[in-house]
Amino acid sequence: MARSIDYGNLMHKALRALIQEVLEDVAQNGLPGQHHFFITFDTSHEDAELADWLRDRYPDEMTVVMQHWFDNLAVDDAGFAVTLNFGDNPEPLYIPFDAIRTFVDPSVEFGLRFETQESDEDEDEDDDPPPAPKQDAEVVRLDTWRK
Asked: Could you give the C-alpha distances from 98 to 27, 44, 132, in angstroms and in order?
C-alpha cells in the first residue's frame, strides 16, 4: 500500500490544538481585553452535551458566544465544558473539539472554519489507499458574518 502524508487531518489536528490552547489560557486567566468568541458547533455530535431544550431548538448546529458572562470553563484534550446564560437560564455545555464548525474572535478578526471530515480513526482495511480527507480547516475573514 502506498503511504502518503495526510495534510488535511494534520492541519485539522493542529488548529484544534490552537483552540484548545486558547481556551486553556482563558480558563486560567480570563478573557484579555476585548477578546470574545463565537463558536458554532454540531449539536448532533455524539459527545456534545447540552440541555434537551437546546438540542430540540438547535438540532443541527448552534453558535454560542463567550464574552461578558460564562462560568466553569474547563478544557480537556477532547473538548471543553462551559456554563453559558440563555435568557437568564445558566446551562452547562460540553463541546468536543471535533464538533466545532467555526471559531471566531471578532476583536482581532480571527476565524477558523472546519468542514466535515472523516475520523482519523476510520482506517480502510482494504489494500486500497484511504480516500482523501473530506475536511480541511481554513482561516476565514470576519466579513463572512457581517451584514
From this structure: 19, 12, 18
Check residue 10 and report its DSSP letter: H
Residue with the three cell numbers 493542529:
14
CB atoms closer than 10 angstroms to residue 121: 5
User: Which string of b and e fits 63-101 if b means at least 16 CB within 10 Å?
Assistant: ebebeeebeebebeeebbebebeeeeeeeebbbbbbbbb
Q: Is 141 exposed, middle or buried (0-12, 13-18, 19+ CB in 10 A)?
A: exposed
Query: Residue with C-alpha cell 477558523?
Result: 112
DSSP, res 1 = -
Q: How far apart are CA 34 and CA 117, in angstroms?
A: 32
pLDDT, tens digit, for every residue of 78-131? 999 999 998 888 999 999 999 999 999 998 999 999 876 554 444 444 445 444
Amino acid identity at 74 = A
